[in-house]
Write a structure and sequence with these properties.
This protein has 191 residues and is mainly beta. The strands form five sheets. The chain has a five-stranded mixed sheet, with no helix packed on it. The chain has a four-stranded antiparallel sheet with strand order 13-12-15-16, with no helix packed on it.
Length: 191
């Protein structure tokens, strides 16, 4: 046997036990391995859809294996899935050509947990019949919140009854928190 790392013509000379010789030329070619690569974001917030692309050519086949807090497998060139658990996911993509040559690409996807909802409460006026109703963050120090009426800050004013929500963006991950909810009751009806 003979190992080679180059394509080309190779001559083989065989001699049997009687001393007879036979020479033959053999052209050695290699099958082309496919390209394997994974593109897409590798950092997500809990609840976001993970989108990864692996398409490197239509005749190739694709086998994705994702392990971590949850395990997933896919057999398409590009994948999307929504993890139900935050954590670190190891992604493995095997790309196989029609000649059965396989190349592998890997990456790590991080899904950040959803931050807890901020503590909020009424302060001052709580009655909608004498607006505005005042609400604020009760964390210490007070957090800058995104309120459902468009206010941004540690407090907000509301002029209509109903449910209000507030959340914040985690400065370390850029992920939105869970929403806190308060209900502003309607004014009494004396009719």
């Amino acid at each position: 046997s003979y190992s080679t790392w180059q394509t080309g013509d190779y001559y083989v000379l065989v001699t049997n036990s009687d001393g007879c010789k036979k020479e033959r030329m053999k052209n050695v070619t290699f099958l082309n391995a496919p390209t394997a690569r994974i593109t897409g974001n590798t950092t997500y917030c809990f609840g976001e859809e993970v989108k990864l692309n692996g398409n490197t050519g239509s005749p190739n086949s694709y086998n994705w294996t994702i392990t971590g807090p949850e395990n997933h497998t896919f057999n398409t060139a590009n994948i999307t899935f929504t993890p139900g658990t935050s954590g670190t996911y190891n992604v493995n993509l095997d790309v196989t050509s029609p000649d059965h040559c396989t190349k592998t690409a890997t990456c790590t996807v991080i899904v950040h947990p959803q931050p807890a909802a901020p503590p909020i409460s009424f302060y001052g006026n709580e009655c909608i019949h004498t607006p505005p109703v005042y609400v604020h963050s009760t964390s210490s120090p007070a957090q800058s919140l995104l309120w459902s009426n468009g206010f941004h800050g540690s407090s907000a004013q509301y002029y209509v009854p109903g449910f209000l929500t507030a959340h914040y963006i985690d400065p370390s991950t850029g992920c939105p928190s869970a929403k806190s909810t308060l209900f502003i009751p309607p004014a009494p009806n004396y009719d």
